TrEMBL record:
It comes from the Bacteria. The keyword Membrane applies. The lineage of its organism: Bacteria, Bacillati, Bacillota, Bacilli, Lactobacillales. Self-interacts. Interacts with FtsZ. SMART domains: FtsA. GO terms for biological process: cell division. It is found in: Cell membrane. Keywords: Cell cycle, Cell division, Cell membrane, Membrane. Residues 1-184 form the SHS2 domain. This is Cell division protein FtsA. Coiled coil: none annotated. Residues 423-445 have a biased composition (Basic and acidic residues).
Length: 445
């Protein structure tokens, strides 16, 4: 499987085999500005370089990817769908679940937006019994309620076109904040509430994750490239040199720097080399960072999001600047820490999103695969196989009497009880249904 993170200043690609990362590559991207594609060809070229580079590095043949969608493009809304299962009551199968999900998408998606994913919060059997997975339960009707995530059609088309022009196919999209949370947060932090601050090259975002869902997001259209521009302008050096001195000598918090530590620069129009101390450089960096963090903090404070038990988790390329966690903690009066992947070859926060995309996709449930099958149009033969099962696998289609109805409800209650009471049995059931997941994995490298 290949995770693709298309960022403003760089494209990151991570390859995993059976969930284990085997290679990662980052390449510069000049086709985007503040998180939006402004040149499809240049973006496609960056994607191509990244994927060819990681393919060569891992000796893999890459045909398709799973790409991330940044939080700035996402819109969330609660949505409900409904599907009829059978007048006399039959076992719910994959086809029934997909029809219920399809009704959600067709009823809730607006003309100028496309569905990215749907996160079911509950299924409703016959309008009264709440379950997590309705398959194999007896029902006359099936309802589903959850969170529908959509993205604007135009920018989404540009991302798809850039991937296609690079010569690859995108299997499906993953919401980047949820991808990051899958690796950067533990279960308690995801459940009780945390803030992910992603400091990218062109955009900085703060996303509140609670109960495993996106609750609020604040986007600031400045990032690491703006810091580089400031250094370039103040010191009169090229942007390439500015980026290098930022990484080599810069601190987010000037108190970490020393006036005694100096480095040489070649200023435009200057006479020979000039010496600059780390404190001066760090003050340039700090000024822009404080502006970004202050704006993000105001949005979080307005929505009472700075009191999350999990505090703030910082990631993204700009989090490489030493002291960023201290600056954030002191500036916003919260606890803060930095996250970066710990896998060999990608111990760098720039890979957090791409690594998260891989991790999120591998952990998707079978219902999640059915959702993506509806949205992205794959897995139809699974539905056909399910629908063409022998009649003996279904409940007899006689007219339902009161006693039959009671028996069906008892059947569902018994199944739910059995699922909750025996972990071993649940694991055995998972093994029996792995065929669905194995089928969809044929779409991955």
């Amino acid at each position: 499987m290949v995770g693709l993170d298309i960022g403003t200043t760089s494209v990151k690609a991570v390859v995993a085999d059976s969930g284990k990362v085997i290679g990662a590559v980052t390449t510069p991207n000049s086709g985007m500005r503040h998180g939006q594609i402004v040149d499809i060809d240049q973006t496609a070229a960056a994607i191509s370089r990244a994927l060819k580079g990681v393919a060569e590095k891992t000796n893999a043949k890459i045909y398709s990817v799973v790409a991330g969608i940044p939080v700035g493009m996402l819109q969330l809304e609660t949505a409900t769908g409904f599907a009829s299962v059978g007048e006399q009551g039959t076992e719910v199968n994959n086809d029934d679940v997909k029809r219920a999900i399809s009704s959600v998408i067709h009823s809730a998606v607006k003309d100028d937006r496309d569905a990215i994913t749907f996160l079911p919060s509950r299924f409703l059997i016959d309008s009264k019994t709440e379950v997590d997975d309705p398959r194999k339960m007896i029902a006359h009707s099936l309802g589903v309620t959850g969170i529908l995530l959509t993205a604007p059609t135009g920018p989404l088309h540009n991302i798809k076109k850039a991937i296609e022009r690079a010569g690859y196919h995108n299997n499906f999209f993953v919401p980047t904040p949820l991808a990051i949370s899958s690796v950067a947060l533990n279960e308690s932090e995801k459940t009780f509430g945390s803030v992910i601050v992603d400091l990218g090259g062109g955009v900085s975002t703060a996303t509140v994750i609670k109960d495993g869902q996106i609750k609020y997001a604040n986007i600031d259209l400045e990032g690491g490239s703006d810091i580089t521009h400031d250094i370039s302008a103040v010191l009169s050096i090229s942007k390439n040199d500015a980026e290098q001195v930022k990484l080599d000598y810069g601190f987010a918090d000037p108190s970490f720097a020393s006036k005694n530590d100096k480095f040489a620069i070649n200023s435009v129009g200057g006479n020979g080399q000039q010496m600059v101390d780390e404190v001066y450089l760090s003050e340039i960096i700090n000024a822009r960072l404080e502006q970004i963090l202050t704006r993000l903090g105001k949005g979080l404070a307005k929505h009472h999001a700075l009191k999350q038990p999990g505090g703030i988790v910082i990631t993204g390329g700009t989090s490489l600047l030493q002291g960023i966690d201290t600056l954030t903690a002191n500036g916003l009066n919260v606890k803060a820490r930095i996250y970066q992947p710990d896998q060999i070859g990608m111990r760098n926060p720039i890979y957090t999103a791409a690594y998260g995309i891989i991790n999120y996709a591998y952990k998707m449930s079978e219902v999640d695969y059915l959702v993506n099958g509806v949205i992205y149009g794959f897995g139809e033969n699974i539905v056909e196989q399910e629908a063409s099962k022998p009649e003996t696998s279904k409940i007899s289609k006689s007219i339902a009497s009161n006693s039959e109805t009671e028996a069906k409800e008892a059947y569902n209650r018994t199944k739910m009880s059995a699922d909750n009471s025996s972990t071993d049995e649940k694991n055995n059931n998972k093994e029996k249904t792995n065929g669905l997941k194995d089928f969809f994995k044929k779409f991955f490298d």
